[in-house]
Specification:
Number of domains: 1
CATH architecture: 3-Layer(aba) Sandwich
Shape: globular
Order of helices and strands: EHEHEHEHEHEHHE
Low-confidence stretches: none
Strand order of the largest sheet: 3-2-1-4-5-6-7
Largest sheet: 7 strands, parallel
Number of helices: 7
Radius of gyration: 18 Å
Helix content: 40-55%
CATH class: Alpha Beta
Structural class: alpha/beta
Mean pLDDT: 91
């Protein structure tokens, strides 16, 4: 993997090691930043003064997110398919040259397959494993030295589907459950290095993926009754900004009207 300059950011490590994290000017890397929760979180973190690296497969969608950042100089567009090792190498090189070692790493990329276990091809399951497990592992492993040095944070956007497995969504729920176990393991291992790890389990949120779920279910889609991506982003920012004496490990948030 491409090495990053992980030297401490000036002013990033106050004399009190348990102080509130300093987000102003810090780099954040967000996968799945083009739409939904990833986009909302990118805007929220940029609003806190962070420089945000926007990762996703579709450059035009990422540029739309960047254009929504109040100060576009805080946004760096980094198109990449995080399931590709070659793309990830290019991404890490671009992060090193254009963003800097992330102090907040957000795994927000996701993929949804609908189909029974009997009808789900092996390659589709492998793709979901690649998106939900292998990609976070590959990126985190490469960026851990800098995260440790900065006493940084990893945010993993999971799903309430881990707790409510429905017919036709087994591949999605199973790979998200694997992601949950991986996240718990990462937290247990990295606590000693000062890295905080947050797992987020949103309920039904008004995103393009959720609109697809409603079509699959044959239900009328009322996004105004669901969680809004900005709701989830606000909760995550609050967790990230906790004083270092505290760690929010699991954040479960659901829509009030359909909860």
């Amino acid at each position: 993997m491409t090495p990053l300059d992980d030297s401490p950011r000036p002013g990033a490590r106050p004399s009190d090691p348990w102080a509130v994290p300093v987000l102003e000017g810090a780099p954040a890397l967000i996968t799945g930043a083009g739409t939904g929760i990833g986009r909302a979180l990118a805007l929220a973190l940029a609003g806190r003064g962070m420089r945000v690296g926007l990762v996703g497969r579709r450059e035009e969608v990422l540029r739309d997110t960047a254009s929504a950042v109040a100060d576009e100089r805080r946004a760096v567009v980094l198109p990449a398919d995080v399931t590709s090792e070659e793309d990830t190498e290019r991404l890490l090189a671009a992060v090193a040259s254009e963003l800097g070692a992330p102090e907040v790493l957000v795994h927000g990329a996701g993929r949804l397959h609908h189909g029974s276990i009997a009808d789900t091809p092996l390659d589709e399951l492998e793709t979901e494993v690649a998106v939900h497990l292998l990609a976070p592992h590959r990126l985190t492993r490469a960026l851990l030295p800098g995260l440790r040095r900065a006493r940084g944070q990893v945010v993993v956007i999971n799903s309430s589907a881990v707790f409510d497995v429905r017919p036709g969504f087994a591949a999605y729920s199973a790979t998200k459950a694997a992601l949950q176990a991986w996240t718990d393991g990462l937290r247990a291992e990295e606590n000693q290095h000062g890295v905080r790890v947050l797992a987020v389990f949103p309920g039904r949120t008004a995103t393009p993926m959720q609109e697809l779920v409603y079509r699959i279910e044959g239900r009328e889609y009322h996004p105004e009754r669901l969680l809004q991506p900005e709701d989830v982003a606000a909760a995550i920012v609050q967790a990230v900004e906790q004083p270092r004496t505290a760690e929010i490990t699991d954040l479960r948030i659901r829509p009030f009207l359909e909860g």
